[in-house]
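Lab notes, practical 5.
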Amino acid sequence: MDRAVFMIAITDRSRGGEFAAWFQSQGANLVLSALGQGTATTEVLDYLGLEATEKAVLLLAGPRSGRLVRRAARELWLDVPGRGILMTVPISSVGGGRARDYLLQWQAEEDEMEKETTHELIVVIANRGHTDQVMDAARSAGAAGGTTIHAKGTGTELARKFFGVSLAAEKEIVFILAKEADRKPIMKAVMAQAGMNTRAQGVVFSLPVTDLAGLRLLEEDG
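Output from the prediction step:
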């Protein structure tokens, strides 16, 4: 499935409905929304004129289209500080033709030659209450910031078999967008300072980002 992508949009919580409505106007059948929390420092928030870090995290699948991402950047004003960021990661397969048609039937324009991947999305799953520990580790290796959402985990007994430890059910998922060259140092720092041998019990992995909008804001406040 060469051209299917999973889209992740992050914006201020007050704009979540606006972003969801925009994607639906483009043909998206299923737009999932979760409440998130930004991890920008107070100094960065003051600089950008932001009063809060509450975020809306929108998740959806669609055909890959750089033109669609650029249209989102233009119509959702993603290059304006405080508006948000949009990234896409590739999907390798979808189970069943009907499900594929449901998720990916948008009418996307044919794209130009694919660009080289320059950024990766680092995902950290850690015990609830340890976002600061994760982000302190990530920032020590050059990360600008991230967004966290609350989740509930399962498989604690299986984790005991593999790691010899008990895992807390309450989790936080931290999204950190980083330049490809910074991925390994950031992941190593998180594993060393907030990994399975720490109270955070963090598990970290990364995904390639195929298209990106709102990068200027990301590199300022994460």
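Observations recorded by the TA: DSSP finds eight helices and nine strands in the chain. The helical segments are 16-25, 42-48, 66-75, 97-104, 131-140, 156-163, 183-194, 215-221.
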